[in-house]
Amino acid sequence: MSEPTSANTPKPSSSVKLVLLGEAAVGKSSLVLRFVNNDFQENKEPTIGAAFLTQKCSLPTRTIKFEIWDTAGQERFASLAPMYYRNAQAALVVYDVTKPSSLTKAKHWVAELQRQASPGIVIALVGNKLDLTNDASNEAAGEPTSTEGGEDEATNDAGDENQAEEATPGDARKVSTQEANAYAEEESLLFFETSAKTGVNVADVFTAIANAIPESSLKTGRGAGTGQTTFGGGRPAEDTRVNLGERATATPKEGCAC
Amino acid sequence: MESLAETPWDVTISGTGLGQSLLALALSRSDKKVLHIDKCPYYGGSEAAFSLQEAQEWADNVNKEPGQSPFEDAEVHSPSDSRLSSSRAYTLSLSPHLIYSRSRLLPTLLSSKVYRQLEFQAVGSWWIFGPSEANSNLYRVPSSREDIFADDFISAKSKRTLMKFLRHIGKPPRETEGQSEEEDLSVPFSEYLSSKFQVPAELHDPLLSLSLSQASAQQTSAEYAVPRIKRHLASIGVFGPGFGSLLAKWGGGSELAQVGCRALAVGGGVYVLNAGIESIASPSNSENGDDARMQIKLSNGESIRTKFVVGSHWDLPGQAGNDQPSCEKAARSISVVSSSLESLFPITAEGGPLPAGAVVVFPGSSLGQAEDSPPVYLLIHSSETGECPTGQSVIYGSVRLSGPQGYSLLETAIQKLLESVGDAEAKVLWSLRYTQLGRVGDVIDAAQALKSSSPSESMICFPPLSLDHAFDDALLDMVKEAWKIVQGEEAIDEEFMKFEDREGVEDE
Asked: For B452-463, what is each residue's pLDDT tens digit?
């Protein structure tokens, strides 16, 4: 790619379609609310209908604009999911660390995504409601444990050892970090434990996803040197998007052809 | 949330095709309780988009259950070729329509705010396959004054006649009205061009291609062709230089349908796939007035009650009283090709976007057929559309001739195209052919068309979709009519599809 190099060139910006999946009441909408508005609502009503939100995530080399699709409220029919994960570049599969059945459901979603979604989809497994566990006060347990290679995983082993199966009193945790992490590793998923309530790790999930999206799925261009005739000279080859919003400034001429 | 059976539904939309999904969008901000179902496990109905495997399953179903969809006689041909990628690397569309920049669909997508979820790309060049003149049989149809000046194929004399014709039809309607009273548009397009403008015969087919007419110049009336050529010319430059029509990335009509459904889901509509309508029973006599609801039995065993039901002929059960609508047939094909066919997608004007679509027209005569036999249209989508891997492209073929003759013309046209693009490696890696049923000709009165195809006031049935290659604006009119019926007194014409942005969606 021969990107025009100018000191003042803004960082390239790409849209990433992200779908949220998971059992009802695991906190999908709350995670998004925390990420987008840095807000949390106690005893939030189940979402009526689905939701669509956007949020930018700034990386050192580029800006990712997440288009977040929340299937909330309609998990029962599982009918929104196929529409949502079609062409999605990322999926956030959420379970509740206090509810083992929600991890089982999450595994079903992961299997379905692997079977049906775009081949390169980045999947993050997220155990939410960390605030209900004893780890809530223990930042170390909430460290991201990415299974994608090349990341710093130094803290993980020690952290995992602490997640004994025996829960201490007052700890509502029913799904151990170790179990979920092992599963995530097996399936090559990103893995985080979060609390939408306290905000622990929430932004990290989205940043990790943004980093994990392969460059190739952000740029669908033909690449350089394919003999493309260009009139503009030096314009990026991937520029195929037509902006409808520019209509007003496009100064259409009536019967402009002649 | 109440169960499906307990909810007193206002509207049940059956099928997630383009018409139903646009209605879903229209109702997405109403306070109606809407249930949106589809008998298929996927969205999009007859405008769906498929992976290779899904396309194979779809073809099997079309043949297994004739009469259940506006399709017949589907067949996948998959010669084993290692260059074919995995099934899900493809999104092959049953509705690769192009959308003219002047189509009312685009302002509708803008005012309803869903355009942000769509990505549009330019359809650049129109090519016509002509009798062999030079090394290439493909001739780029000039569609602007600049194009005509730059053209070195047309003689100076022909250029003058062509300019005269284009100037004539490029005039704003008001200016021409006085003269046009004498203009006889009922004659064949070829005669109109020769007698009125002395446009030489070799330019008839190129001009006709701009109308997307699926009949020959002799068989197309000027009445049909002229307004469509006007549409083509008036659309150029609206959204950028050098192009006048668009395609929706990731599967055309399928994406539009899904965007409509998502909007309604966000608005509280409930979606259930794999659930078709088995039977409809009228409201019992004891129920009267506003609460009267018909009883609908779904194929998933559930039973629901609804005031209105909306669908197409193929989404409502036979006993609803709507007979098989009268349809025309077209042979269609989808071919995955092992070449980017790059030469078909030049940037057509300085500063214009890289086109992702192109149109190639084969007049009947170029395929060894009679002069007045119908042309073959090939809509070519580059890998930029996200429909196939880089280095490949997808060819959507169509000819208004059903049966083996239609299929064989499509095949010949594709072979000729591949031979002429100068890529020796260009081969068809995978193809699907099928016959599509649909409407031909224009809907003049949408309200009337919808009424006559609907079994009753509360059972609304969309007429079959147009077989046109461009999005048919009449569909929007019919959606609006359906919306008006459902909204009843609450319907305010000016509010159709006009929405504010939802919270959490920032402006660009």
From this structure: 889 888 999 999
Interface test with A, best of B25, B52, B119, B175 (most A CBs within 10 A): B119
Long-range contacts for A106-110 (Cβ within 8 Å, ≥24 apart)? A106/A21, A106/A22, A106/A23, A107/A183, A109/A21, A109/A22, A109/A81, A110/A187, A110/A189
Is pLDDT above 50 for B107? yes
The pLDDT tens digits for A87-128 are 889 999 999 999 999 999 999 999 999 988 888 899 999 999
The reported pLDDT for the residue numbered A143 is 47
User: Considering CB atoms only, which of A67, A84, A254 is closest to B172?
Assistant: A254
Nearest CB neighbour to A231, from listed B233, B250, B350: B350
B365-380 pLDDT per residue, tens: 899 899 889 999 999 9
What pTM does this model have? 0.86
* B28-37, B103-112, B178-187, range with the lowest pLDDT: B178-187
Domains of chain B are 8-51+90-95+251-323+441-495 (3.50.50.60), 122-249+328-438 (1.10.405.10)
- CA of B294 to nearest chain A CA: how many angstroms apart? 23
Q: Residue A231 to residues A221, A239, B165, B353: CA-CA distances in angstroms?
A: 17, 13, 29, 10
CB atoms within 10 A of CB B429: 22
Domain membership of residue A34 (yes or no) is: yes
| Domain, as residue range, for A66 | 13-218
Contacts B115 to A, Cβ<8 Å:
244-245
Assess B167–A contact: CB distance below 8 Å, yes or no. yes
Put simply, the answer to whether A83 touches B106 (Cβ < 8 Å) is no
pLDDT at B287 over 70: no
Mean pLDDT of chain A, nearest integer: 74
Residue A25 lies in a domain: yes
Closest approach of A218 to chain B, Cα-based (Å): 12
pLDDT tier at B130 (50, 70, 90 boundaries)? Answer: confident
Contacts of A116 in chain B (CB under 8 A): 88
pLDDT of residue B173: 61
Q: What is the ipTM, given to two decimal places?
A: 0.80
* Chain B from 477 to 496: CB within 8 A of any A CB: none
Q: Determine which of A8-12, B12-16, B25-29, B388-392 has the lowest per-residue pLDDT on average.
A: A8-12
CATH of the domain at A27: 3.40.50.300
DSSP state of B473: T
Whole-number Å distance between alpha carbons of A241 and B283: 50
**Would you say residue A241 lies in a domain?**
no
Distance from CA of A193 to the nearest CA of B (A): 25
B266: nearest CB among A52, A119, A256: A52
Residue of A nearest to B349 (CA): A231
Question: How many domains would you assign to chain A?
Answer: 1
A84 interaction partners in chain B (CB closer than 8 Å): 262
Q: What pLDDT is recorded for position B96? A: 95
* Pairwise CB contact (< 8 Å): A229 & B240: no
Domain contains A249: no
Of residues B89, B274, B353, nearest to A239 (C-beta): B353
Shortest Cα–Cα distance, A77 to chain B (Å): 6
Instruction: Out of A229, A244, A257, name the one closest to residue B143 (CB).
Output: A257
Give percent of chain A with pLDDT exceeding 70. 64
Q: Given pLDDT bands bounded at 50, 70 and 90, which one contains residue A255?
A: very low
